Amino acid sequence: MFKAACRSSLLQAQRRPFSCTTIPKESFSKARNEHELDNGELDALRDARRRQRRSEWKRRQGGETFLDHVIINVRGGRGGNGCVAFHREKFKPLGPPSGGSGGRGGDVYIMPTPTLTTLSSIPTRIRGRPGGAGQGTWQNGKNAAPTIIKVPLGTVVRQLPRDDPRRAKDEWEAEEESLEGLSFEERRAKMLESRWVHYPEYENDNVKRDIFKQSEVSLYREERERRWARRQRELNPIQLDLNEVGEEELDVNAPLALGKTKYLGHLIAQGGNGGLGNPHFLSPVNRSPKFATKGHDGERITLELELKIIADIGLVGMPNAGKSTLLRALTGGRAKTEVASYAFTTLNPVVGVIRVSSDGTFEGELQGVRVFEETAVEEARLLEQELAEELGELEPSSEQDTSPAIANDTASYEVAQGPGHYFDILESFRFTIADNPGLISRASEDVGLGHSFLRSIERSHALVYVVDLSGPAPWDELRDLREELEKYQPGMSDKARLVIANKADLLANGGDEAAVAEAKGKLKKLEDYVRTEMVVLEGRTLDVIPISAKFSQNLKKVVGLLQAYVEEARGLVE
Ligand SMILES: Nc1nc2c(ncn2[C@@H]2O[C@H](COP(=O)(O)OP(=O)(O)OP(=O)(O)O)[C@@H](O)[C@H]2O)c(=O)[nH]1
Ligand SMILES: [Mg+2]
């Protein structure tokens, strides 16, 4: 009995507005100590608390957790230094030079991954790992492992050109800057220091020798060649459109047992070569070279990353209007976007794909009438059902009893929608739709979640307003939404095509005639407002459709209209 009470109080708590929702601490410890909840139930309690903490934290960030544009400075790893050493062995005086070479610095790759949705986790300075230094007894340093920058799918990567003031200096410019204002001797001393390793106390002796001077010349020549090759590569600056995840590749050089190389992404900055150990400078005239070279710097490069979320349709609405619920209903629950009754549930834009067959049926419709509840409620219900199944007592939950329209037997939840689903052969059109975070007044001044996602709205071909018809004045909501779009970018509201009046189910009040008449009046008023006040470009008016996203009502009409807008935007119809 306690278990049921505890669970339902959790559900209640989650449904209240967020500011006053706290799951009392005692309930957790009390449940654990006194009522011996099993592990699954304890996990559910823990999960509820974690969800609450995470959402509160995200909200405090004020939208900073979504970033769609960053500039990053990347450096390949520095190569390891070469070593100066001589072989020592009993009865072998004057052993040969035995210093190992340094290992290569780590390369830096960039790789798209479907698990990320924002660029905010990417540091602005990234360095490859340094190679290991060479050691005595011919031990070469270890090559460093590559560094992989993971970015969301749909990221566009551009190398900043030389004349861009935001570009960081490359390795040669950085050295030049550190030498500025020094006298000739000081300059030379510093350059020597950054390139050579000497046997202890032999530095002064080394630099006077011809053999060292010759080595120095060949080192500078090699450096010049490297610099020239780098300039040549810069003629084709890096420009990547990371739209798909790569796969493992067959590699002829891989060990036989493996045969494949792991997919690392695209190489953007090479690590520096390791320095040479002193055996490399052995020659007939110099039998005991007492110098070695230091490792080279890795490549330095500045990249601009931009997250290009392009959906055909963008949903625009105040917080809690039901945008996420609508996206879930249109995609048959496949779009994993969070739904809850508090404002700013959605913090990052989420894109869903709508698949439509030639007779206008969309994929989400195949499951029959389905109720799209809040995420926490759905999860808790599934957990409840699992528990009941485990105990062998499949009793209907109280939620199901109270809502007549609910037809959520688990079978309809579990319609397979993966690859190979029979809808594949019916599909004749497909488009994408983006669920955006809620827009509030003064969002264009960076209030609420602010600017960050308005940019992604800007990229959609057509916009759809979602308003809460059960609210006191949906027309005011519309006016505010339009004003915000216009303030952010004049002319943006001309992309709007449709007004969706959501939560129509709340107005009917169980079929009470007076309530229905009132609801009709309200809808009429909204339509009049849209017709007179919301005229967009070319004198066209917006369509107004009442729906219930939660109970999947009237969605077919919405999909039909959306398809028409997308076809128009893509130039499929005249
Ligand atoms: N009765 C009813 N409730 C709905 C309907 N659509 C959404 N809701 C409820 O409205 C609340 C908010 O829904 P969300 O989909 O999270 O709203 P949102 O617009 O995405 O909100 P933000 O992400 O905060 O901007 C949830 O409690 C939903 O269950 C509907 O058609 N009818
Ligand atoms: Mg949402």
TrEMBL record:
Signal sequence extent: none
One GO MF term attached to the UniProt entry: GTP binding
Transmembrane segments: none
Domain of life: Eukaryota
GO CC terms in record: mitochondrion
Sections of the chain in a coiled coil: none
Domain OBG-type G: 311-567
Obg domain residues: 64-310
Gene3D superfamilies xrefs: GTP1/OBG domain (2.70.210.12), P-loop containing nucleotide triphosphate hydrolases (3.40.50.300)
UniProt-listed GO biological process terms: ribosome biogenesis
Keywords carried by this UniProt record: GTP-binding, Nucleotide-binding
InterPro entries: G_OBG, GTP-bd, GTP1_OBG_dom, GTP1_OBG_dom_sf, OBG_GTPase, P-loop_NTPase
Keyword Mitochondrion included in the entry's annotation: no
Pfam families linked to this entry: GTP1_OBG, MMR_HSR1
Protein's name in the database: GTPase
